Structure formats: structure tokens, C-alpha cells
Amino acid sequence: MSHIAELPLWASVLVSIFLLIGAGLTLIGSFGFYRLGSFYDRLHAPTLGTSWGAAAILIASMICFSVLQSRPVFHELLIGIFITITTPVTLMLLGRAALYRDRAEGNPEVPAMDPPKGVIEPGAAQE
């Protein structure tokens, strides 16, 4: 049996609004993921959709269970912190790995790596 039926109307409306916002932001992020062409462009859309969409869904969960249990429920904050920290780091590492792979394969669409400072490139004029 579900205890959601015991949720007051004001809380139900508030939870529904946050769930719709979260689902909408996640959907927008997935459309961006679908529409953008290159791997590097696709790194940005899911980050925002995941972070803000998950935040709205977690707020809805906090409101729902705080009202049902008659006490503040903050367990979802740990999930939010975890998502906020891990998503950008993971996508940065994926981007660096793809950049390394593309440079190793000699992909002409990827800019070449700059030489370290103080290293003279072959064929460069010396003063």
C-alpha cells in the first residue's frame, strides 16, 4: 500500500512541479545529446540536464518524504553533492581521453598539442 495518498494537496502540487521541472530539464539534456554532432559538443548537454534535472527531482523527494515522515529528510543532499562533484570530473576525464585518442590517431579536426615552453620545434627559425 502506498502512503502517497496521505500527502496533503499543497505538498502534492509542489512535488509534482519539481518532478516536472526535473524531468523536463533531463529531457532537454537528452535532446541536446541527440542533436549535437561531435563527441566534444555532446559532453555539455548531459552535464546540465543531469545536474539541474537531478537537483529538481531530489528536491521533490525531500519535500515528499519530509511531509510524510513529519520530520526533515536530508538524505538526498548526499546524492546531490555526489552528482555535483562526480559529473563534471567524469566528463572532463572522458573529454581528455577522447582528445588523447584523437591526437594519437592523427585526427585533423583536433588541434595539435602545444609544445612545452622552451622547446624549439624542428624547422623553426632560431634567433
UniProtKB/TrEMBL annotation:
Keywords (A to Z) from UniProt: Membrane, Transmembrane, Transmembrane helix
Transmembrane parts of this sequence: 12-36, 48-68, 74-94
Keyword Signal: no
UniProt keyword Transmembrane helix present: yes
Signal peptide positions (record): none
Record region (Disordered): 106-127
InterPro entries cross-referenced by the UniProt entry: PhaG_MnhG_YufB
One Pfam family hit: PhaG_MnhG_YufB
PANTHER family the UniProt entry points to: ANTIPORTER SUBUNIT MNHG2-RELATED
Protein's name in the database: Monovalent cation/H(+) antiporter subunit G
Source species of the chain: Neoaquamicrobium sediminum
Gene that specifies this protein: mnhG
